[in-house]
Amino acid sequence: MSRDGYEISNDDARLDRALIHRFLHDDSYWARGIPREIMDRAIDNSLCFGLYAGDGRQVGFARAITDRAAIAYLADVFVLEQHRGRGRAVRIPPAGGPRAVDGDRRPLPDGINHLDWRAHAGPYP
Fold this sequence. Notes:
The protein is of the alpha+beta class. The protein has helices at about 15-25, 35-45, 90, 110-115, and strands at about 1-5, 5-10, 45-50, 60-65, 70-80, 100, 105. About 20% of the residues lie in helices and about 30% in strands. Strand 6 (about 100) and strand 7 (about 105) form a beta hairpin. Mean pLDDT is about 75; it is low at about 95-125.
């Protein structure tokens, strides 16, 4: 999914785990100091989305903690500072589109597909 030169992908192989860890460990208030092995385990057990600039570099991230059936909680949402201010963080989670849930291909529940969490996003636009 592309928009304004940025692409959103839920391909785990594209995630820049070093960038994600650096941001969460050093710059976030909610996961400051998180060990890399804990972050890796969290990513491995979540539905993750990366936001990529036109040159392919990852510039944002969101992680859905989900049972892939009825519940999805957003966590660790961020966009690097130089790429903020145009609503990109709000677009990251819905980009997952259909995923395998219970053997079907269907969208994740409304809790992630239609969530307007901007009012609760804190200082990260």
